[in-house]
Each structure stands twice: as structure tokens, then as C-alpha cells.
Amino acid sequence: MSNANQFSPPFPKVLRLEPASSCNFHCIHCPTGLNLNSSLGIMSEQTFSQIYEQIKKFRFRMIVLYHGGEPFLNKNFFKMVKKLKPITEKIKTVTNGSLITDSLIDQILESELDIIEISLDGSSPEENNFIRVGSDYEQITSQIKKLTKIRNQKNLKKPEIFISNAQIPKNIKQTDEIKVPSNLIETFDEIKDDIKFREIYTFTWPGMSNKMDSIKPERNSCDHIINTFTIRWNGDVVPCCYDLVNMMVMGNVLKETIEDIWSNSKFVKLRKDINEFNPPNLCKNCNVLYPTHTTSNTYLG
Question: Rounded to an integer, what distance in angstroms lies between the CA atom of residue 65 and that of residue 268?
């Protein structure tokens, strides 16, 4: 990227839409679960339609129907998938798994959803239920296995099924390689060839306690603000998937065009500040910029 356009790059190929910021869990490592998120709701059909009219001219590599809440709380979720599929190569969602009933399994398999990621945290069923308040490890894992088996019986290749596992580190400097916990290996042994695992250390989300304000970042580039565009349930645009609490609202797609927001002064300043090793508070405990000072891992959809 040349110096002339590095702070106003081409519109990205990864789009994140938030079907719901509300959640039926109260996870102890999440600002929503700890009642620190004041922007809660379900994306309405009207809001989705207005967003779609702006994005339908693009062709995305990935659309992620998830930001911070439970996407299946939105009753129009599968209508969204159907509408969005023609403008993207893949569609992914992330869920806590509690709403995967038998009837929802049918809807998932009948849809064009490419990837579904289900969260199960900690290193034991008991720790999962402790961290993810509202979770029932046995019930959720049973439905994951059922989803996988029915998908295979129907000779379907989609959706790919991932188990996302966040573990609480033993100390703030823990850097040892994270591994799939034994309870997940045992639970999913019968379908081990049909699912994939993603392990991360728990993340200190923006809006939560942060003791890193005085540490200079090790890196001055962030893929999130170059290659992803994140729209929340009410049309607000935030810089990345980690801003669950609207710390930095860059604009609202119901009031402005997405192109104008993507290249506005707020986004340009954010990219410039990060480039100059002067990130805003939103970014001051992020593994992207502070890889050896935090315990979190990151990944894009």
C-alpha cells in the first residue's frame, strides 16, 4: 500500500454484521455478560434492508453474522443468510450453542451457512458452565454431535463446524502454547474428524480493566482496520470485532454511506495513530499490537 492511500484503503472484503448484540448468557469474561454493554438489541428487518441496499454492489470474501451477542436470537437470521449469500464467497456465524434445537439444526442444514463456530470455554465441563453463565455443557455438546451426524448422513459438506475454546490464563504473562483441553477431545472423540478446534486465551475486552496504558505497542499495523468493516445491530460502525461497547463509533450506515464512513476523518486518524505507535484506548490491550504483553490470540473470520 502506498503512502498516499495507506490511511484510506479500498473497501474491505470481510464484512461483519451483528444480528443481535443481546445475549442469553452472562459470561464472566465478556462486557455484555458483566452488564458493561449499553448498546443491546436485535437488528430489525428494516435496518438489515437498509444495510443490504448499500452492500449489495460488493462481492465479499467473507460475511460474518456475529459481533458480540447471540445471533440466533434474531428470528430473521436465516433470511439474512439467504439474502447475503449471492454477494459473498462464505458466510460464518458464532454462537453459544444454547439455541441449537432439533428444529434449528434442520434450518442450519437447509441454509447456505458455510461455517458455524460454537463456544465452549475452560478446561472442563464445570469450568465451561462457570465461565459461561447460562451454559449447559452436556446439552450443548449433545446438540453439536447431533448437528454433525445429521449433516454427515445427508452427505453435506457445509457448514464446517468449529469449537471455539477460550481458556483463562494462569497469569497475565502466560505464553505457553495453548492446547485443546482433554474434556473436548473426549467429548467429541466420535466425530473428531468432522469438527475443528480453535483455542484462545481469554481477551481483556475494551471497556474492561486495562493496565497497559503506558506500554508502547510493538507493532504499528492492524489488519482489522484495513480489511474488515463492522456494522452493529443498530447501524453503528465500529473499528473492529473487539469493540463490543461502542468505544469508538465511526459512523452509522443508516445516516451515511459505508464508503464515506470507511474513509472519514475518524477512520483515517485511527489508522494514522496506530501507524505512529500511538493507538487509542480501544487498542491498548489488543494482541495485534501487543503480542507479547497480552494473553489473547486473535483471528479473522
Answer: 26
Chain segment 271-294, per-residue pLDDT in tens: 999 999 999 988 887 888 887 665
Task: Give strand pairing partners of 165.
Answer: 199
Cell of 237: 460502525
| Alpha carbon separation from 16 to 44, 59, 177, 298 (Å, rounded) | 16, 14, 29, 15
Return contacts of 48-51, CB within 8 angstroms, 24+ apart. Answer: 48/17, 48/76, 48/80, 48/83, 50/235, 50/253, 50/254, 51/17, 51/231, 51/235, 51/253, 51/254
Between CA 171 and CA 200 the distance in angstroms is 14
Model's pTM, two decimal places? 0.91
Nearest to 236 by CA among 26, 8, 40: 40
Residue 263 contacts by C-beta under 8 Å, 6 or more apart in sequence? 8
Residues 261 and 237 sit within 8 Å (Cβ to Cβ): yes
Among 63-72, 233-242, 289-298, which stretch is predicted with the lowest mean pLDDT?
289-298
| Coil/strand/helix, residue 16 | strand
